[in-house]
Amino acid sequence: MTIALLLIAGLLVAFANGANDNFKGVATLLGSGTAGSDWASRRNGWCAGTHHVAVGTHGQSRCRGILMFQYLMIAVALLLAFAFAYHTQVGALQFPNATQRREMLSQMMEQNRRAFPEADEVDVANVIELMKQENVVTVDVRTAAERKVSIIPGALTAAEFERTIGNHAGKTIICYCTIGYRSAKYAQTMKQRGVPISSFNGSIIAWCQAGQKLTTQEGHDTKQVHIYGPKWNLLPPEYQAVR
Fold it and tell me: Fewest CB atoms within 10 A around its CB: which of 9, 37, 141, 176?
């Protein structure tokens, strides 16, 4: 992408320079013997229609057209150069390295703890080990649009869990969302209602950073993840962010 932008900008500048040279040729052809005068001042006179040299209407129109083309190509080249710089800067912001992704997620996880201090929580290492057991229930508290993209395998929706809550007595219940804020809120609320449930701090982003499996609601493997918003795009490169 960036290479293509540079090539296009270079070509446009070359075209603009070429148009400039062509303009000089036109000015020479349209001149009336003042070969020693500065071509730019002659151009200004012709194109403005104020120079004393008599030039036909067709010549003036052609002169103006070449001048406009030159300025247009330079403007487009500058816009492409700006687009390249913007693309490079935004790309650097949107695609932090693995260490930066972990650090950014860690900061968000700490914010979750401060926001919902009464919520019980588990981290990704705990969840990976617990998921090897058969008495674990995972609850996805995200929206339907988010769940439609992918889920942690076997996860129930919050509605499904609450509708069948009596069937999960004695089981380890873990809820998750994108990074753990909504799941911490849900876990704290359910705890106040007397339902033991732990929030997966880091949630589906931490799950992906650990290289774990995702499926669609139909059970098909996928690497797509709904990230809720650009702030939460901390996925490793092998996963595809969806909004």
Answer: 37
